[in-house]
Amino acid sequence: MENDTNNKKRNYIFGPVPSRRLGRSLGVDLVPFKTCSYDCVYCQLGRTTNKTTQRKEWVPLTDVIDQLKDHLYLKPDYITLSGSGEPTLFSKLEELILKIKEISDTPVAVLTNGSLLWLPEVRYALNNADMVIPSLDAGSNRVFQYVNRPHPDITFSKMLQGLVDFRSFFRGQYWLEVFLLAGVTTPQAEIVKLKSCIDLIQPDLVQINTVTRPPAEDYAEQVPKNQLEEIAIQLFERAEIIADYRNVHKEEDFTARREDILILLQRRPCSIEDIAAGLGLHRNEVVKYIEELSAEGRIETKRQNQMLYYKALT
């Protein structure tokens, strides 16, 4: 475990925040910000600053459990292991899931990029989750390298075999997210390759996504909805498009915090980190509020010195 004196001051729990697929999701953050095995061009959290495949206790397990206990009164629909990087890099993942099961009946979901499922220890660590949602963003090595920019330890064949092997091992709900980029994964030849991979994996459900928030790279472009609908029909019989979250779960706390952010952005442009620090929120929670405000046209995005800033529209 890292000997980081600031660890105890960190918030490892965020939300509940509205999730497009999991209802009111109580998030659990298990790695430092942007510690990941990928550096995806479309990532809403920006570029990866620590690209690694090292699995260790990046944050203290006991602190995560203690903070989680303090939030269970909020009665979320899911406890979701996701956060600021790749959650399967947390070496005590299996122990964490078992401890959550001891203290709560709330189902546990894991949002993962799927890059480490070729490791038996990762598959076993996830075995007691209720739902696992890995990603598949490419049907070939060339596109995989372009879109996901993986750590050198991770090859396309390893990643794909891990997704296939986990299907035969895991008995919970196994959904697959496919993130499409205009002109990159939308040509018919790439769709055919993606379909072949999905047919090998045989998930319970395929969820198709595209760029809806400012990506890490400006050249990662959104696929129009009508095109996504056509691709969904081709990819898998149980495929759906993940719709943007809009006007659902309008709870007082969510609305109040969103208004706090808007007031802050009326004073000065801020980055995600500025908002999180200024209002004492987790950065992943801030992303949800920013998504809502952007969808409503109440804020605009500006890029300066490789950083994204948000400003309220008058």
Automatic annotation (TrEMBL):
Name of the protein in its database record: tRNA-modifying enzyme
UniProt keyword Cell wall biogenesis/degradation present: no
InterPro entries: Aldolase_TIM, ArsR-like_HTH, GTPase_Obg, HTH_11, rSAM, rSAM_sf, WH-like_DNA-bd_sf, WH_DNA-bd_sf
Keyword Metal-binding tagged: yes
Co-factor requirement: [4Fe-4S] cluster
GO MF annotations in UniProt: 4 iron, 4 sulfur cluster binding; catalytic activity; metal ion binding
GO annotation (BP), single: regulation of DNA-templated transcription
Signal peptide bounds: none
Domain Radical SAM core stretches: 20-246
Matching SUPFAM superfamilies: Radical SAM enzymes, Winged helix' DNA-binding domain
Organism encoding this protein: Limihaloglobus sulfuriphilus
Keywords: 4Fe-4S, Iron, Iron-sulfur, Metal-binding, S-adenosyl-L-methionine
